[in-house]
Structure formats: C-alpha cells, structure tokens
Amino acid sequence: MRRDVLILGGxxxxxxxxxxxxxxxxxxxxGFGASSHVSGPQGALALYRWIEALGYDVQRLQYRERFxxxxxxxxxxxxxxxxxxxxxxxxxxxxxxxAGGVLVLADDRPGQLAGAAPLFRAFDLELVALPLExxxxxxxxxxxxxxxxxxxxxxxxxxxxxxxxxxxxxxLVGSTAAPLVLGLPYxxxxxxxxxxxxxxxxxxxDAGDNAAMxxxxxxxAPPGARVAFDEYHxxxxxxxxxxxxxxxxxxxxxxxxxxxxxxxxxxxxxxxFGRPTPLREEAARRSSAExxxxxxxxxxxxxxxxxLQAHYRAMFKRRLARATGLSPHLDDAAFxxxxxxxxxxxxxxxxxxxxxxxxxxxxxxxxxxxxxxxxRLVDGPGSVGTLPAGVGSGTTTRAQ
Length: 400
Prior knowledge:
Helix content: 40-55%
Structural class: alpha/beta
Distance between the termini: 64 Å
CATH class of the largest domain: Alpha Beta
CATH architecture of the largest domain: 3-Layer(aba) Sandwich
Mean pLDDT: 82
Low-confidence stretches: 24-31, 382-400
Strand order of the largest sheet: 1-11-2-3-10-9-8
Number of domains: 3
Number of helices: 13
C-alpha cells in the first residue's frame, strides 16, 4: 500500500476523532451559561434572534470597562449571570428601571452567592429552594396579564420560587404561595422576575406557552425599541484575545486543526519548507584553469597523447596562417610553399615543426618543447630558437 494512502487514512481517522470527541462537540461555551451567544440547549441565542426578527433593536451589553444599563434601551434582559453583580451595579439597574426601563430577570439558582442575588435584593426579591413536590409542572398562568397572545401554562423546569415582602408584587405564574414569575412596578418602570430560567433558553422557548409568555413581556417595550441583553456578567468584559479566539471558538478550532494537518502532512511526506540551499562548492563557478586541468588529466589517464599532438599541430598551423594571412585549410605542401614565398626564414622551421607534431613523440617533455618552439616561431621573426634533437633533420623518434 502506498505511503500517501496511509497518511491520508490516518488524517481522516484523526479528523473523525476530533469531530466526535473534540471541543466542537460541546453544546455551549463553558462558563457562558444562558448567554445570547450560546446556541446550545441552555443558551439564549434563539431568544436573541427571535426578538431581533420581531423588529426590535437588539443589542448586547459587553466589552466595556464598567457595567451600566444602556440609557437608550427600553428593556434589559438578564439571564442567570455567571459573574456576580456588585451592589453598585445592582443599584444602577434599579435607578434605570425607576426611570422607566423594563427589566426581565431570570435565574433558577437560590442562595446569596448566585450571580443575580444582589440584583434580586435590589428589588426586595429572593430566590428560595422548594421541594419538587411543591413545584407545579407545568405551571399555570395566574393573571390575565399574559393574554395577548394567551398563555395558560408554562413549562418552567424550576426548583426554586420567589419570595418578597412588597405588597405591589403580582404573582403571574405558579401559585400565590410559591410564585415562579412575579410582576413588579418600580417607579416609572417594571420588573419581570422569574425563578424559572428554562422558558428563556433555546430548548425551553418553544415548550408549552413559554414563547407566548415571553411575547407578553415584550409588549412592555414599544415596537422597534432597543432591547439589551446583559453579556457583561457572562464574562464578555474585554475584547477577546487571539488565544481566546483560537481556543474558544469553532473557527479557531478549525484553523488549529487545519494547521496541524498541514504540518503533519508536510512532515510525513518529507516536503521541504523552502528551496534547498546549495553548498558553496556547488554554487561557485569553475575557472578555465580547472577545466583545462581536468581535461588534461582525462587525456593523460586515457593515454591520448596523439590527440594532444593533433590539437597542438592544428592550433600551430592556424596561428601561423593568421599571422601571415594564409589559409589554414591548405595542405602542408601548399601551405609551406606559400609561406616560403612570404616569410622564407620561417618556412623551413615551420615545416620541421609540422612534421615533428605529426609523428609520435617520445615523452611529454619532448611534446612541451615542440609546443614552446612553435610559440616562439609564431610570436615573431626575431624569436629564433633551437629545434629539439631530431627536428628538421628529417628523422623522428618513435614513442617509447
């Protein structure tokens, strides 16, 4: 089996395991709970998009130095905050409601350490745990306040109820002894407090008459008004870093997985990460002397002295012809006759050299002496040298 097929098969198995067991399987981002950013069962993204589809100006309160209600918002929705409200923040929300805002506050975690506990206390409200047998399920709607559209029963999934000492608090859902949802006028504004979080979540919004109840709450805000979701207390305090985007979002997981797969493929297939860097010896250009030395070495090892002699003889005749204006393509007899007519002092010596270079030479030293004599003859008429033994005498010496 080919290696590439094995690599691709392994990467496919890794992808399957990543999809089945990886972070993308998580339904929601840890710690964000009922955030409007979360599409999991306990998130509130469906509620956010539904209100937006109804024509309201939906905004998120997030990524700011300090928390404060939006003065332009007609309604503020706070769903099970993960971060605890401070007393100053709860007081700021109470002032905003008193000035005419509508607050929808839902949490199902009783106790003073819950994130929304200070906000409940700001309106004299408290969440108390009740036994399951005392919790009506589904919970009936107690008042005609939720009649447009009509809501009769609410699937609450609650384990706590609301308790208050305010005489103007009106039980809306549940029972008068253990109300799940209370309506509370506060100054010029209004508060919907709920001990049931489930009706506002992605899974619970379409159960029973939950959507009708939420729609009746929205009637408190004018059509097209601004509705704000508190995301500040779900951990969206500062702008996300690159690390958060890579490790905490599906797009970041996809980028990391793609980079990991590419790196593994390149490593396993032996692909280079750039052009190979040549060695200095390979990049350096060879000189003419190196070429000559290498060719001379090859000819010497091959014993081709006759080839060298033929080469030097042809070069000697060509240089002599260029110096005297003759044609190097003439045969030796015609060439020497023409040379005698022009330079008689060179003709005899040239004939002797041509004859010597055509016959076998005894040694390399003898060949070098012939070449040196030929150079002196071509260089000028005044350069007269002594021919080596046997040259010009009409006799030649056989190679040893």
